[in-house]
Every structure is written in C-alpha cells, then in structure tokens.
Amino acid sequence: MTQTEGYVDQSAVGLEEPQPMYKMLRETSPVFRSGPQGPVVLSRLADIEMALKRTDLFSSNMDAVDLGNVRPLIPLQVDPPEHAKYRRVLDPLFTPREMAGREPAVTALVNRMIDGFADRGECDFHAEFAVPLPCTVFLQLLGLPLEDLDKFLVWKDGVIRPEAAVGAAEHAIAAAPAARQIYAYFERAIDDHLDDPREDVLSALIATDVDGRQMSRQELLDICFLFLIAGLDTVTDSLDCFFVYLAKHPDQRRILIEQPDILPSAIEEMLRWETPVPGVARVAMQDVEVGGCPISKGERISPLLGAANTDPAEFDDPDVVDFARNPNRHRAFGGGPHRCLGSHLARLELRVALREFHRRIPDYEIPPGVQLKYTSGLRSVEALPLTFPAAAP
Amino acid sequence: MSRIQVDPERCTGHGRCYTLAPDIFDADEVGHSKLLVDDVSGELEDHAVLGEENCPEHAITLSP
Predict the structure, then answer these.
(1) Facing A335 at nearest CB: one of B29, B53, B57
(2) Is the peptide bond before A81 cis (omega within 30 degrees of 0)?
C-alpha cells in the first residue's frame, strides 16, 4: 500500500478520463490509502467484489458516508440480515416488469424535453435534459407535485455536493441544512398521501407490510431520503457521461443509429466504460487485511467500481468500447446485497432517452473550444453545450 | 445437455439473465432470477450460457 503525504482526492484526479488512473492504481497500488483523512481505495475487481459481498467486514452503515441524514438511509445504510426485510418490499416496486409499465410516460416526457430545444439547433444538454429528466420521473413515480422540481434540485445538490465542503466531516456539516429541508418536505408529502392515497410508490410504501406491520413514519422518511439522493444525480451523471462519449465518438454514435437493436447492449457497455458512479463507500467493521495491507476497524474504504469495470482479469481488451461486448459482467450498479435498487429504472430512462434523442437528433457535437468541467464525486458535467441541425419548426 | 442452477444466495436481481435469455430465465416477484427450464441443449444451451456468463454475481452455473 502506498502512503502519500498529500491528500489525493480521487474525485479531482482524472474525472474526465479516469480509466488511465484506474489502470495505474490497479497496477501499482491496488489497495491505496488516499491520505490521512481519505478512504482506502480498492481498485482490483477481486477485492472490490469481496468488499461488496462481505458486509460483515465492510459495512455500508452511516459511518461509511455522511450526507447530513440523522438516521440510517433505508436500505443503503442497513446491512444484512435486517436489510433483506426492506429489500423484500422495495425490490418488487422496481423490477424490470414494473418499470416497463412506465415506458410510455417516460417516452412522452423525453419528447417534451427535446421539443424544448429541437428547433433551436443548440442546447445545454446537462441543464435542459440530463438534470430535469430523472428528477421529473422521480416526482411522477412518488406522486409528488411537478412544480417541486426546482426545490428538489437545490436539495439534491445540497446533500451530494454542498458548496465549500472539502473533507468528509465538513461535508456532513455543510449537508445538514438541506437534509433538514428534505425531511420536512417528506413529512408533509407523507401526510398528504395518508389523507389521499393514490397509485404511486409513496402510497404503495405507506400501505405495505414490513415484518407483518406497517412501516413507521421514520422508516418512510429514511426510504424517501435515500430515493432522492440515489435516484436523481446518478441518472444525470450517466446521461452526461454517455452523451459526452457519443458526441466525441461519432463513429460509435453511427452504430446506435444504424443498428437500433444494439442499444440495450450499448448501454451496458457505456455503463461499464464510463461508470458514472465511479466508487461506493464502506467502513471496516474489524481490523482486516486486503491484498496484504492492513485496514483498521472504523476506516473508510472506497471500492472503485470504475476500476473493477476495466480490470483485465474480467474483461478482454478492457480499453476497447465494444457495443456488442459479450460477456459483460460490469459492476456499474455495484454488487452483493446493496446492488442498486433503482438499476432497472435507470436502464429504462437511459434506453428511452438515447432512443428518442437519436431518433430526433442523430447528429450533434460539442462546439469546438468548449472545456467540460466535471463535478466532484459523481461524474456529471457542469454544462454540456451541444449544437445540431435545427429541426424545421 | 446441461443442467442449469441459480444460487438464490448469490442472486441479487441484476436481471441480466432474464433480459438476455428470456426463454430460460424469468423474474420472480422481487426481480430475482427464476428458471423456466432445468435442462438445456443446443440453441437453448447457448442462451443459458449467455445468462451464466453475464451474471455479475456468478450465481448461475451450468453442469453436464
């Protein structure tokens, strides 16, 4: 393991093109202590897989990451065996079959968003598409008023990337005000749904049984909070990463347009290559050794999913982006018990977005001279200007 | 001819198998993998291999 004097912020190093950094870490310091305050970064697939499965050694509890929440987020920050009782009631709400029913609504939404800029010949893809799409889908899914969109965007950024926060401790303090507003908002939303049950996920959760009893208000709040931080930013990150990639690789984009059936497989490959959520957070539950390196109880670790997804131990020619790649056992949605609950919703949003966008706007580019600025932690860009031939009005 | 097995302890519901080979695998009520057939040969065996090789949890095995 390498000890460095300076704090190496994994989020600031090579965010735009992180794959060479993953390779360097895997080959030189696969278990990397990123400075006195930073987490121990795992970059070999075998170690990452072990850490994701062995929740008895590496917990996903509140000590792993602090987003200003006052109780464990459900189900992310609850480990097995208790975790299973929540996944048993949440998983059925997010199966591929359940998500397929939402496809017409998502398709209509995506087209309305494209209508907003198609005849202009240019857009900020990030602000006009990648951000509002998952947020609006989320509001529809939970049965919340669509006019709350702007509030959600402020709160989401307030807990995920609060201004001026550098280390983990500062992050927690800076995130606290937004977290309080999120709790207060969902308190009201739960009251509203109790008074007026309807066909949406929040009403379904209120009505559901966990362990033979109704969910408590606190449990409902802890689930809603998790949904908000897990479901919005990650799809924005994926859309940003994918469209940057496709704008810069017109030959690959051409494949999507000429062979539309390859889209689901292409999405899996872009999830692998881009890994929009580059790493997850865990905390050691006991003194443990990984790859010959001691990790102390209470230390945070960060399994780098992006590094697992480019590990030649699993992937032939890992640096080649092959839309027809098979097999493709990528871990972009993590793995083990905490496998991303919303993965099938994310896949639906990505598939519909890419299909409809390329049907209507097959040719686009990032204007020459534009420098993309990636945000820290999760891989979104601050702005993604695209130009394209304007549609006839 | 191969026998397919899905280890329910390992499956966490990635859904790759039943998306890629819906004639072999299906989803149960929580989205975990459920077998539609136990023994496969020929083209069906190729489909089963697709599921096996794409499972991120190594939950699927084919044995003679």
Answers:
(1) B57
(2) yes
CB contact under 8 A, A328 and B54: yes
Cβ atoms of residues A112 and A357 within 8 Å: no
What residue type is assigned to position A181 of the chain? Q
Pairing assessment for the beta strands A282-284 and A209-210 based on DSSP bridges: unpaired
pLDDT attached to residue A7: 35
Q: Do A95 and B15 touch (CB under 8 A)?
A: yes
| Mean of pLDDT over chain B | 97
CB-CB neighbors (< 8 A) of B15 in chain A = 95-96, 343-344
- Residue A154: CB atoms within 10 A of its CB come to 10
Containing A253, the helix (H) or strand (E) segment is helix A250-258
In angstroms, the CA A232 to CA A335 distance is 20
B2 inside 8 A of chain A by CB: no
- Taken as a whole, chain B contains a residue count of 64
B27 touches chain A (CB under 8 A): yes
pLDDT tens across A298-347, in order?
999 999 999 999 999 999 999 999 999 999 999 999 999 999 999 999 99
* pLDDT for the residue numbered A377: 80
Average pLDDT over residues A240-259: 98
User: Which residues 307-336 of A have a C-beta within 8 angstroms of B?
Assistant: 326-331, 333, 335-336
Angle (nearest 5°) at CA A78 between A344 and A64 = 95
Per-residue pLDDT at A11: 44
Cβ(A96)–Cβ(A113) below 8 Å: no
* Crossing angle between the packed helical segments A132-142 and A217-231, to the nearest 10 degrees: 160
b (16+ CB within 10 A) / e for A272-306: bbbbbbbbbbbbbbeebebeebebeeebbbbbbbb
Q: Tokens for A374?
A: 């990636």
ipTM over 0.95: yes
